[in-house]
Write a structure and sequence with these properties.
about 150 residues; alpha/beta; Mannitol-specific EII, Chain A; six-stranded mixed sheet; 5 helices; about 45% helix
């Protein structure tokens, strides 16, 4: 599976500005509603519940909020590059690179494979730096396409 199979250019924001983790998660839920048809409030509540289990702020400015959702037909991914925002990350630092992953309740291993792939992208310092330098959704998408090709 390629990230570009589940991430579209219109699910990318290159210049986010959020006052809080809550606002960032609300925006992600709204973006997901537009493409999946799922209710944004339900998505937001599911993301908050996941955060209560443990932060998805994995450190080094990166967050990977994710959850499984009843009624989703397929995996969905969104990406936001934002001004640093507090996210209760494991290292205590704010995040600026955020991948959202939503999976159908019955997605099985696909959810975990996609989450692992997203994690690998953001652990690579050169890719993270390129994403931070990108100015447009198209530039971000192209970076991810290049990663997908090299990872194939």
């Amino acid at each position: 599976m390629k990230i570009t199979d589940i991430l579209s250019k219109k699910a990318i924001i290159a210049d986010g500005k959020f006052g809080s983790k809550r606002q960032l998660l609300e925006k992600l839920a709204g973006m997901a509603e537009e493409e999946t048809g799922a209710d944004s409030r339900t998505l937001f509540d599911a993301l908050l519940e996941r955060e209560r289990l443990g932060t998805t702020g994995v450190g080094r400015g990166v967050a990977l909020p994710h959850t499984r959702m009843t009624g989703l037909k397929k995996l969905y991914c969104a990406f936001i590059k934002t001004e640093p925002v507090g996210f209760d990350s494991v290292d205590g630092k704010p995040v600026d690179l955020v991948f959202l992953l939503l999976a159908p309740e019955e997605s099985g291993a696909d959810h975990l494979k996609a989450l692992a792939k997203l994690s690998r992208i953001l652990r690579d310092e050169s890719i993270a730096a390129a994403l931070r330098d990108a100015k447009t959704p198209s530039q971000i998408y192209d970076i991810i396409v290049k990663y997908d090709e090299e990872d194939a």
